[in-house]
Amino acid sequence: MKDTQAQVQLHTCNGLTSCVHTYTLCFLFISVLGNFELRTFHNFKTPRAALDGTNQETSTPVFVEEEEEDKHQPSEDIRRSVEVLKNAAKTRKVAAEEILSAFKILEKAKLDPSGFLDTLGGTESPGRTWMLVFTAKKQLDGGKYFPITAIQRFDAVGKRIENGVYLGPLGWLTFEGRLSWKKRILAFMFERLRIKIGPFSPFDINIKGKDESEPSTKNPFFIWFYIDEEIAVARGRSGGTAFWCRCRHVESY
């Protein structure tokens, strides 16, 4: 898969300063947070995405509300929906209507989330990175492929989250903080902002408040409907739904 704005690898089959560039970065990133609450990152270099040929075993979701003899096998509708999203992640040519339909099927399936966190955030720090592919409006009233590079990192062991957007030579903007997990809900709060502008060194801004409590649904959160080794689907607190593809080959500028 080739994408002019990111260099990643898809596993097998996927709410500052006076500088103009900084304002550009902040505007784009805040738009993401406001509309879809999609967050995270780990130093990433733009240009293109390629299919990962590594042979990895994909985790198999199971039903919560199926007959005993069938509960370990997802339905054909779910299989087709997952393939639609994986194809969309690789080609970015699948129609939005097909992706929205796949979202509906996966949300209604009520898959067992018991293995979601380990798949999303890995079993050791610094966790796993995922690239945002597609975002949908509230109630799935339309959607589109995300036009810029946005990378999220989830660390299940360290209970950390990092989110960023990357604009090639213009620079990047990331937020980092802590997360919590309960059933299928991942809540989080950010503590640090990092900004890089052009060729200059990045600088940090501490945005940590006095609240030391564990993140909860009073904070931003995601509700996860589907996660395997290649793609992940979730809805944010504001009601927007999105999906990511697993990515790696993370590099600094």
TrEMBL record:
Highest taxon of the source?
Eukaryota
Taxonomic path: Eukaryota, Viridiplantae, Streptophyta, Embryophyta, Tracheophyta
Q: Which organism is it from?
A: Heracleum sosnowskyi
Q: What is this protein called?
A: Alpha-1,6-mannosyltransferase MNN10
Assigned keywords, A-Z: Membrane, Transmembrane, Transmembrane helix
Key word Transmembrane helix present: yes
Residues annotated as transmembrane: 20-38
